[in-house]
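Q: What would this chain look like folded?
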Amino acid sequence: MKVDPSQRARLLRLGIPLLLAWGVAWLLGIAILAKVAIDLRAELRETDLDTELALYATTVYGLTWFDEAGVFHDEILRLEKELLDAPYDIWVVEPGNPPTRHFSPAHPRFNLTDFTQLQTTVMGQGQDVYLDGQDTDGKPYRLHAIPTFMDQGDTSTPKAMIITVADPTPGQAAYQAFVQRIVGASALLGILGLLVGVGLTAWSLRPVLASLRQRERFLSATAHELRTPVAALRSICESAQRGDEAPQLALTRMDGLLRSATHTLEDLLLFARLDAGASLERQPVRLDLLVEALLPDDDSVTLDATATVVNLDPRLATVAVRNLLENARKHGAAAQSHIHVTVAGAQVTVEDQGKGFSAELLARRETDFALSPTQGGTGLGLAIVNMVARLHGGALRLENRVEGGARVTVNFA
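A: My prediction, written as structure tokens:
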């Protein structure tokens, strides 16, 4: 169904805040998750590298020693080819002037010449040190230094420093690639979430749109139903004022029109209450007697009914049956048209000898009978009957009889 500009503007005013709230919450959640993942990956990157540096430094500490004469022994360390070929520079430096390098890489990867900055912490305080820096060639490095002691003699004072140096660039490259993947995945999830938000917003606004359409149909139908009696009243008043019609006759005609308009207004208000979700007051009712009480005293309607008790709302059921009878009388083919009513179980069937229903109206027999000003007077009555039936858990069915006329069946259960 086409949405007019005023409805579209109202829906946008309702939908945009919903979409913005969803979008902000979704994107904020994705951003927080991405930030947590990136931070954890950064911690792991640094922790992994520091763990390896500490492992190598500890290994060197276990494979080397200083004897009681202060002589450094690295014989066992030099037998470990895999350790010496690892992508790290290993130094054992004893501070002094100049410092003594007891062990150094054969082919250093970093141009490091001065370790005096480590002496205070490592040698003076006996603590491990992790340090980032750049060598004299500007190449970045990650450094780990621990103290080593003599095996005999003064074993409480550090004798030298074991220094392991690694290149943090590969880890940083992997970290950058991870960050790019996380950002890309977050952007994709953000777009997907926004699309889902658009769908959810549209879905959540469907009842609002249906309500707006129903309200506009209701207002249009109200104007349509009241336009004719208002125009007739105006015509009668003008005729009486000109003296073309006797005042008493004019008042009688106006009284009839006002009664009809009042009945129409009552039906419109009932439809509005039902559409707003009226509650049922069910009770056991003899449906055959309820229908019989609504029939006229003349012979224009025949009743074929069996005694049946149905648990329904008698007030609403009365309105529904009355509307079916009025429609049948209104759309009969002639004054002598006969109406036949059948009551069986929770079902009431009304048949007339009129022209029957239009193809458009019959096409709606499996869906709701929407209130519309274009249904030639049947819209309001059938809309009310259909809504009453659906509130009872039943349905309304329209048919055209083979021999001519219409058949309307309402089931209250």
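The chain has eleven helices and 14 strands.
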